[in-house]
Design a protein that fits this description.
The chain is α/β, with parallel strands linked by helices. The chain contains 6 helices and 19 strands. The protein has helices spanning 91-98, 121-129, 163-168, 246-257, 280-290, 303-312, and strands spanning 12-13, 15-22, 36-38, 67-74, 77-83, 108-110, 135-138, 145-149, 155-158, 172-175, 180-182, 187-189, 206-210, 213-216, 225-230, 234-239, 262-268, 294-298, 324-329. The strands form 3 sheets. Strands 3-19-2-4-5-6-7-10 form an 8-stranded mixed β-sheet. Strands 1, 11, 12, 15, 16, 17 and 18 form a 7-stranded mixed β-sheet that branches. The longest helix is centred in the C-terminal third of the chain and has 12 residues, at 246-257.
Amino acid sequence: MATSGNQIGLLEAERVEIITLCENFVDVTAPAGGPVKRVSARGRLERPSSLIVNQRPDLFEGAHGLSLLVRATVNGVTRSVLFDAGGSVDGLVHNLDCMEMAPGEWNCIVLSHGHGDHAMGLVGLQQRVGRLNVPLTIHPDAFLERGSVRANGEIMAIASPSRRGLADAGIELIETEQPSLLLEGSLLVTGQIARTNDYETGWPAHRARRNGEWEPDPLVCDDQALVRNLKGKGLVVLSGCGHAGIMNTVSHAQALTGVSQVHAVMGGFNLGPQEFQSRITPVVEALTALNPALVAPAHCTGYRAACAIYRALPVAFVQNTVGTQITLIGR
């Protein structure tokens, strides 16, 4: 595997498992096979009713947002991280119940950025378990008051996490713009991502309140990603929304680790909104040049971009839904 300096010594994992806990989509008919398994909802019973016979357990809930449980085995030891918490208060806990998983089955939490569609599930989690007592890695800009400009010029507020609220919930905040190695060097949080191409140029309508005034904030600088290094196969790159651009994100991960080979790319690619449609072609071309073994666009990627990725990389493409479990095995 090609390397270029190994600026950050990210340990290789023998196995990486990614379970989608929250997503925009639920599809019980999505195909499985190879590294992909579709977990069935099984652990939470529907309300009994005389209207329906042969009732089954509750289905998963989909909502705009993303939450991934990421497990990795390094030197025979498996550790896990909750990457984002989804966009609804009850969705994360509900889907965990459906999967018969206990809230808190992770060693740490990482928030990809400070928008509510990646953090709201923490509310339901706290309501279920009380004090959370877990470290959480986050970029300092995630606590800014944010909004987006509507066509009429009004600014629509975007929900964001509270520094005081998270601390009061027992969370140990790790705030940094810099890359972070977590879980004994087996997990890389990219920190602030360098913007190095000319087509992933941010979100022009995005605003942040600084010094009491709304200011343009197109780069959403708190956007960061997770990176694992799968033994003998290369990087596994996971994005939340990908406001930094999924290709900027991958390039940043390669530069930080010195590992050029990319095995899997998964998460929000932020290509759904109309104003981002022109980015689809260069992103798909760059993804195709990487030749990853697996690509799982999710959340805010959008149908047009997902279809374009499928056409370009049909073997690698995975349709992501709540309950998708991807297991990657190193050499």
